[in-house]
Write the structure tokens for this entry.
Amino acid sequence: MQVIKTDIEGVVIIEPKLFKDERGYFFESFNLREFEEKVTPIKFVQDNESKSSYGVVRGLHFQNHPYAQSKLVRVVKGKVLDVAVDIRKNSPTYGKYVAVELSEDNHRQLFIPIGFAHGFSVLSDEVIFQYKCSNFYNKDSEGAIAWNDEDLNIDWQIPLDKIVLSEKDKHHLPLNRIDSQFKY
């Protein structure tokens, strides 16, 4: 696998080595030994999968301590714009974000460490999205920031009249009104 650094330390793009022939393709989607050697020591404990249709924006979510999570995300079917926002106080990149297109064609993955909010927008008719988490989900530890935070100014690559949100995601506060417990 190839690891590509982004503008924010710790957030990396992973490109697997793809083996193609007339039958199709094969790749390792995760190899613990290689991941720990090239990215960071990790213990993933939960895998999640979601299915969404065009225009859906999920996020920007995070889990607070003691259930804070790192995530390794990828698309199995379709295409998304995946976004990781630095919410670590005193970080030189606090309030900055990385946006990466993940698709069934490019097979890229994004590693999002603890201290980041995460979200994605669906750019294809349908998407199947998978993520590995380094801690268990806990409802009482849920946190989120507004998907349309004016200070972040994220271009979700979806026309505003086509964006589909959960009822919960319509009501989150902007980052400057969140008391982040994450430290740099």
